[in-house]
Design goal:
The chain has 404 residues and is mainly α. Helices cover 73% and strands 0% of the residues. The protein is built from 16 helices and no strands.
Length: 404
């Protein structure tokens, strides 16, 4: 343990792992994802149809945005192990809200790129500090539940957001730009809720500074070489997989190319997120009982099903079958991957480890977005089939690999 003040136990008779921070951070993520996912399914259509961007630009924008987030996650993770985490979280959510304002003002696709970069820089700043606070005082055997519940709350926003967007899209006579302004409301609300987050480092850092103004703000920086070998091996494997995991914006572009209307794309995305949200907590809880690599491998099988399915189908309504199956991928890998990584390092290195993990996998998504966008062609079938086949092979191999 880090020796920092612990978070007060939850009131009442709720589970011990369901701390105040878990509840608050779930609420914050729900609001922010409601804002983000209200816009995400329409963004590829807005870029290509309204602003005239080529499909390669969609992949490049999303890939560059995730790449910027990746670099920032590494730096923020290092800071999160040395200074108070709540200011980093607040800054991150504040930049995400600013990014949505810039989207509302964009009149050309390069401006959308700036807006997405701002939004994703915010994600990079907040992610590792938030995840470190989520598991503060939570034992290893219950972290799958915590990350699973957080992912479920986050993704519930990804269900509400698209459905709200679909309703407003129809109510506002198909004016896409009006939706960007609506998304600002939950985004700003999420920033305000950060003030309710309990950060034990805040008091510790203030006390140390008052006692000795020449002392460092927090614990000494841990060199990366001090992280365990199991962490590095697991990180390398998970980052390698994400070279096949290109941004979901391209999957939505494929759905549109198959013949779904804008409303149909939004609806399919909402169904995907409903499956994702519904499966996230059960998958996280299952990973507290079974080996996490096994649960992660199941997620890769869902990934392969989604990508191969989208690559092979030619009937629009089948998107509503394939995308919910794809939702099982993120449910079995996102929170499970974070829980897996969290058990490989001591508590004093959680921010650094989460930042490196999320940064490395995000950088891999950047590369995936670039190659998939360039290879997209007229219908995206080739990159989908390549990625789906690769994921299927890894899903079969992962449980058989020796212990990392």
């Amino acid at each position: 343990m880090t020796g920092l003040a612990s978070e007060p136990p939850p009131a009442g008779r709720g589970p011990v792992w369901l701390t105040r921070n878990v509840k608050t951070l779930c609420g914050i993520s729900f609001l922010q994802d409601t804002a983000s996912e209200l816009l995400y399914p329409i963004l590829p259509i807005f870029l290509t149809i309204v602003l005239g961007a080529p499909p390669a630009a969609v992949g490049a924008i999303e890939g560059l945005a995730e790449g910027a987030a990746s670099v920032t996650k590494v730096a923020a993770g290092r800071l999160a192990d040395r200074i108070a985490r709540r200011p980093l979280i607040g800054t991150g959510y504040g930049l995400a809200a600013l990014g949505k304002l810039l989207l509302a003002l964009a009149t050309a696709w390069p401006l959308v790129m700036i807006a997405r970069l701002t939004d994703r820089l915010g994600k990079g700043i907040r992610s590792a500090p938030r995840d470190a606070l989520l598991i503060n005082v939570i034992p290893n055997g219950q972290r799958g539940k915590v990350f699973g519940l957080h992912r479920a709350a986050d993704t519930a926003g990804a269900v509400v957001g698209p459905l709200l967007g679909l309703a407003l899209y129809e109510a506002l006579d198909h004016h896409l730009r009006s939706l960007f302004w609506v998304a600002l409301v939950p985004a700003v609300a999420s920033v305000a809720l950060v003030t309710a987050v309990h950060d034990p480092r805040t008091k510790t850092v203030k006390t140390a500074t008052a006692a000795d103004t020449s002392a460092p703000a927090g614990p000494p920086r841990t060199p990366w070489r001090a992280l365990p070998g199991r962490f590095w091996r697991t990180l390398a494997l998970l980052a390698a997989f994400n070279l096949l995991n290109f941004p979901d914006a391209l999957l939505l572009l494929r759905a549109h190319d198959l013949g779904l209307t804008t409303a149909g794309v939004i609806g399919a995305y909402a169904v995907y997120n409903l499956a994702y949200a519904a499966l996230s907590y059960p998958a996280g809880a299952l990973s507290d009982r079974l080996p996490r690599p096994l649960v992660f491998a199941a997620g890769l099988a869902f990934f392969a099903t989604g990508y191969l399915g989208l690559g092979l189908i030619h009937t629009p309504w089948l998107v509503f079958v394939v995308l919910p199956l794809y939702g099982g991928f993120n449910a079995c890998t996102d929170g499970v991957g974070k829980a897996w990584i969290s058990t490989l390092v001591p508590d004093s290195q959680q921010g650094t480890a989460q930042g490196l993990y999320q940064g490395a996998t995000g950088a891999a998504v950047l590369i995936a977005g670039l190659w998939a966008g360039l290879a997209w062609g007229t219908d995206g079938q080739i990159p989908l089939l390549i990625a789906g086949t690769g994921a299927l092979a890894l899903a079969a191999a992962l449980p058989a690999l020796p212990a990392l």
